[in-house]
Automatic annotation (TrEMBL):
InterPro entries: AAA+_ATPase, ABC_transporter-like_ATP-bd, ABC_transporter-like_CS, ABC_transporter_ATP-binding, P-loop_NTPase. This is ABC transporter domain-containing protein. Residues 25-258 form the ABC transporter domain. Pfam families: ABC_tran. Gene3D superfamilies: P-loop containing nucleotide triphosphate hydrolases. Coiled coil: none annotated. Keywords: ATP-binding, Nucleotide-binding, Transport. It comes from the Bacteria. Signal peptide: none annotated. One of its GO terms (molecular function) is ATP hydrolysis activity.
Amino acid sequence: MDKMITVTHLQKTFKKTVKQPGLKGGIKALFRPEIETFEAVKDLNFEIPKGEIFGFIGANGAGKSTTIKMLTGILTPTSGACLINGKNPQKNRTAYVKDIGVVFGQRTQLWWDLALQETYSVLKEIYGISDSAFHKRMAFLNEVLDLNAFIKDPVRTLSLGQRMRADIAASLLHNPKVLFLDEPTIGLDVAVKDNIRKAIKQINQEEQTTILLTTHDLNDIELLCDRIFMIDRGQEIFDGSVTQLKQRFGKIHEVRFDMTRQDDVDKLNYQDLFSDLEVRKEGTQVTVQFDASKIAIPDLIKFTLTQADVTDIAVKDADIEEIIRRFFRKEIENV
């Protein structure tokens, strides 16, 4: 299978000046600055074949955005190399950007005061897309992302979900071979997230677009990703499928119970019946984190309801930070 992205011993180091507090510290930093070196990315190695949806995940500050900025040519690696479709992002900048599309969930590439269709016309000229190719492409993107309802509206009037669909369309206008999606569903409601996921999946299947996706949403990972690559503190800690991730870390769930009285919270002694769980008690709220492959959710809820007067129950998957925390806890236990 053709390799679309190849990363070899990729590393990025930043230097920053450490300033001590007070006037004396300011003067010292001016004339004799203390330089501290920070390794944001450390010796990353991976390959992504053509047409794969690659989940690139990690806690905040893990080095994901720094890596993406190197892969897209925004930053230059301190050492190592990356090749995307046979091109070096830093050395072949002009030719390279025609092969990629980039979406940052918290930033937009659209012109704020222009109508959306005018924005796409500007991008058409920037990428040198012919009239016939542009109309054909817009027809496809309208079908997949349902843009017609707001395509004549100024970008500043769009909702977050509409803007995200518009940004994805803008990144795909020139039919790139690789699409970088950095938190594309952040801040969206459930229905909009589902539509965005379906669009991403359809684009990947119909056009064999290679997609590198960063997200904190485990549903994004489970529903979209063929493979997961997890990093922490700039280093690889996991590379495999969603099934392998669950086998390694357990199927983590979190249940939150809201109680009527503080006395009810004190009655709950889960450890008497269940093992391998964590309990947090804050006021009249109790949060239980557990491995659903070892503890059945109905059993946990039934036990709680028999012991206390519960006003509300919420069940959710644990987030990426919790998975990484459990990873390091298991590593320590195995030492």
